[in-house]
Amino acid sequence: MDKKQWIAQIQRDAFTFEQFDCTPLVNAIGEAKLVLLGEATHGTSEFYTIRAEITRTLIEQKQFSFIAVEGDWPSCYVLNQYVKGYLETEDVEEVLQAFNRWPTWMWANREIAELAKWLRAYNAGLADEQKVGFYGLDVYSLWESIDEIMRYLKKTNSPELETAKKVFSCFEPYQRDGQEYGISAAYFSSACEEEVVQLLLELQQKKRWEQGDREAALNMELNALVARNAEQYYRAMVQGGPQSWNIRDIHMVEVINRLLDFHGKQAKGIIWEHNTHIGDARATDMAEEGEINVGQLLREQYAAEEVFAVGFGTYRGTVIAARGWGEPLQRMQVPPAQTNSWEDMLHEAGPENKLILFSENREAYRQQAIGHRAIGVVYFPEDERGNYVPTILSMRYDAFVYVEQTNALTPLVVEPVLV
């Protein structure tokens, strides 16, 4: 189709909105076991607030069991303890200081604070096994996960403590520098793989429940899983190619599956990640680069009706990002979308915000791969040429939320630590 035909198709199919109405989307989600909610940036308020509205509705109407996000397991677990009422403090901003690894703004922000306060209130009075959790899927927290394991095993005087000490001593020379460890492990055969695998096996075989916290064993097992996969990730990262990306997304899927197992046969999960993770890689040029992702893997592992992916996009606005890894955050302008991109055609179809469901018109959007904007934590708005991913929209997602003009989210002040 040419551009005019695409615009006409969008105009026929779009639900327009000022305030987002979850009803059409939730009806389309049906009885899905996993709902994947994307974002086109890591710093846009509307992406967070609309996902939060969808999340609240799914929890209230369809009894979803947990939220899992593109964040570190240890820091997310602190927030999990807060939303379940297991921490003494009621100050959510104090709790969000746990998100101190750069980029801190992804989860230490006022939008997440509001969702966390709602979830804490929702969970109040529910039995432990009914409380909705908040968990981290990512693989970066190698040292933080080892620290958590050490603290718990010392506290419980566990026989696995000696194995954990071997893990800690193996990583200790690298001074919490993932790149330094990766170089050494990749090129000088000084990897700590054997130690972390042994620790993971021991924790899996000898699960212990801490009184008053039925998740203690899960917490230790997932921290050990992070340590194992982070060790592989940092080794692969210095060698380049798609392997490090694939290790990371395979890890995320493994965590999702373990969370489903933990929450029982009827468990259902809501996943918050960037579009590049939740949108099926096979519908983009990622597949040509040898990259897989969470959306693809979950669709391969579960029935079609069990996984529902929602992509997000914007035409213009502002965003929180940085100009280099580890550099201070900035409130940046997001320029108008490039001509002939999906975002450009959604804009040309009318200035309203839009929701498109692909359940009945998937074939119409399968005809052509068209550029779709992706903004990361590092961003150069004056040069966006590399920010557009060729995408067959209805193959990548089951629905798409478009916000015409977006605003930067509101970060909390957290002192960042680099990994």
TrEMBL record:
Gene3D superfamilies linked to this entry: Biosynthetic Protein domain, EreA-like (biosynthetic domain), EreA-like, domain 2
One Pfam family name is: Erythro_esteras
Its BP terms in the Gene Ontology are: response to antibiotic
InterPro entries per the UniProt record, alphabetical: Emycin_Estase (IPR007815), Hydrolase/PRTase-associated (IPR052036), UCP036794_erythomycin (IPR014622)
Superkingdom is Bacteria
PANTHER family, per this entry? ESTERASE, PUTATIVE (AFU_ORTHOLOGUE AFUA_1G05850)-RELATED (PTHR31299:SF0)
Indicate what this protein is called per its UniProt record.
Erythromycin esterase-like protein
Please give the organism. Answer: Brevibacillus fulvus
